[in-house]
Amino acid sequence: MYLTFWGVRGSYPVPGAATVRYGGHTSCVELRSDRGKCLVIDAGTGLRGLGKKLAQEFRKPDGATYNLILSHVHWDHIQGLPFFEPAYIGDTKIVVHAPRAAAKELRQVIGGITRHEFFPVDLDAVPADFEFHEVVPGSAFEIDEFTVLPIGLNHPFGAVGYRVDADGSSMAYVSDTAPFDRMLHKQHFTAGIEEPSDEDREILKTMRANLVESLREVDTVIYDTHFTSEEYEQFPHWGHSTPEHALQICQEAGVRQLVLYHHAPAHDDDMMDRIAEKFGLLGKEANVVVCVAKEKMTLTMGEVTNPGIVA
Ligand SMILES: [Zn+2]
Ligand SMILES: [Zn+2]
């Protein structure tokens, strides 16, 4: 398997001179099996660039199916969807897999962002057929040669991570999540930190243990490290993690490589360089290869035997 980052930023896009090296687009990762099957992870503004590439690859007269797995439906993970070029090609099917959140039906949530007040083309009016599948933490499913395991995360209104196994290798996508210490995020808005009850602490403990177990021996883990530890102390109720927490989890799980991801909009290129250097060294001590996600960066998991293109 191999993957390419199309958006590495959290919260909102920040194009410009300060982010030109790491990139300003929000969350989107392209995952490919050795024979070229594509699985899209999250649909932030990075999805636009990936959609253009996929549309150029589109040649089959009998149509194509595109599978997107979403961590959750916060803006920075869905905002690229209306600009996904394959949606405007006839005879294509777009299957969106996501946890249920905020509204009863996923179609209602995704359809909501293309309501006429917000966007000129209604979801039902685009040439592609959309299908929506709900994912449930702990219930693995298959998409082509990918085995996908959703993992429950600690984020306001919920989010899921994914472990994906294919071609004898594995990767995982863990975004968005807070660490499992200061508070348990639930299905309601929190204006500040809510001290966890004893019951909450037990849930956090179980959630953390389950995450570590799900990441066991994974080759490459992409992890929400939005905050520095100082920033996290100020905003523990925002639902994001730090490189220190990500490294701890990956070390416990015996992960080979950790990729820092979902960068805060305010973290410019120079700051990302400093983070890369610091956690590269700390990773060596912890026996985990650590790098920082950059737009257009491609990583390989395991041996890629026959990289090809399949629409
Ligand atoms: Zn996010
Ligand atoms: Zn979020």
Describe this structure in words.
The protein is of the alpha/beta class and 311 residues long. The chain has a single domain, classed as Ribonuclease Z/Hydroxyacylglutathione hydrolase-like (Metallo-beta-lactamase, Chain A, 4-Layer Sandwich), CATH 3.60.15. The chain has six helices and 14 strands. The strands form two sheets. Strands 6-5-4-3-2-1-14 form a seven-stranded mixed sheet. A seven-stranded mixed sheet has the order 7-8-9-10-11-12-13. A hairpin with a 5-residue loop joins strand 8 (146-153) and strand 9 (159-166). The structure holds zinc ion (ZN) (2 copies).
Proportion in β-strands: 15-25%
Tell me about the biggest sheet?
Answer: 7 strands, mixed
> How would you name the CATH homologous superfamily?
Ribonuclease Z/Hydroxyacylglutathione hydrolase-like
Q: What ligands are attached or bound here?
A: zinc ion
Number of domains: 1
User: What is the CATH domain class?
Assistant: Alpha Beta
What's the SSE pattern? Answer: EEEHEEHEEEEEHEHHEHEE
Judging by the overall fold, what is the CATH architecture? 4-Layer Sandwich
Task: Give a summary of the structure in a few sentences.
The protein has 311 residues and is of the alpha/beta class.
List the helices and strands and how they pair.
Elements: E1 2-7, E2 28-32, E3 38-41, H1 47-57, E4 64-69, E5 92-98, H2 106-112, E6 129-134, E7 141-143, E8 146-153, E9 159-166, E10 169-174, H3 198-214, E11 220-224, H4 229-234, H5 243-253, E12 257-261, H6 269-286, E13 289-292, E14 298-300
Parallel strand pairs: 3-4, 4-5, 5-6, 10-11, 11-12, 12-13
Antiparallel strand pairs: 1-2, 1-14, 2-3, 7-8, 8-9, 9-10
